[in-house]
# Entry
Amino acid sequence: MLAAVTRSPGLMVLDEVGDPGPPGPQEVILRPEVVGVCGSDLHLYSGDVGALSGARSFFPRVQGHEMSAVVEATGQDCPGGVRTGDRVAVWPLRGCGRCYPCRVGRANACVSLELVGIHRDGGLQQLLRLPASQVFGIGDLDAESGAFVEPMSVAVHALARAGIRSGQPVVVLGAGPIGLATVLAATAAGANVLVTDPVAARRELATRVGASAVAWGSHEEQLAAVHDWTRGRGAPRVVDTTGDPATLAQATEMVCSAGRVVVVGMSAAAAPLRSGIFPEKEIDVAGSSCATADDFRAAVRLVQAHRDKVSLLFSHRFPLTRAREAIECVANSPAEVVKVLVVVGDQAS
Ligand SMILES: [Zn+2]
Ligand SMILES: [Zn+2]
# Structure
């Protein structure tokens, strides 16, 4: 079978590899259909592994952690909900079960977290073996939308960390795929959302998926926009999806006193912050990593309910044979790139 293998940073090649064989107990064999490419794929592809969880050996790796797939075979003792022929989305996360975060029910922050497509082989291949516990049925959802369940689960988790309420003003920094998923999930929960992003087309998309306001400009202009929008109070919730460390300082200025900032975007870089602003405004800061199984289930429902809006986010499609171009398309990040998809299914025999 075919696999797109990232052999070393910057080197992704199409290889003929052995198939995974029959599933073991509580395992499934999947036939990936559509795989989304995202910023963390780019961190791995470019060798910027400092931005990823865990210092481990990453290469060679079959990437792809955002995927829809069809269940090809099920092993013994699989949970009743997973049947051969079902279309599923993959919750890419596996915790160790022993560390403090795992023991308190937060495997998404596990100290030795393993993610499909990052620490283990992922969806950019024709067949994939996984524990059945990482597979969630998506009913009649189309394969492209199914590949967006994983990024949606990241947004759902970020909003759980933010603790948003209906009618509450929420500022979302960045209108990339995670930012746009956050806008969609927040507005579906009844929040009022203002989005900042330098790209006009992305601000326009943010409005189409539910944002009530958008802003861009200098640091001061963005801050002024948030203050106007909240009648001078600042926003009770700010979600930073940019992965740009410089925006964290901006988030602390946009958030109101007693408000909360959630950081979703990943970066290995440092940024200066005025630490006194935290006690002055008594700001909560919450990191948000991946998503729990409950978030993933909620994301399935959200994508099912809003598939029309989700489909607006798919900007580019490549077959598996051109997976390298897909990742380079994200890397070169022309303004028109939102969510890039690799259609794996077309290659299947
Ligand atoms: Zn992703
Ligand atoms: Zn753990």
Summary: The first helix runs from residue 39 to 45. The pocket of zinc ion (ligand 2) is lined by residues 95-96, 98-99, 101-102, 110-112 (CB under 6 Å). The radius of gyration is 20 Å.
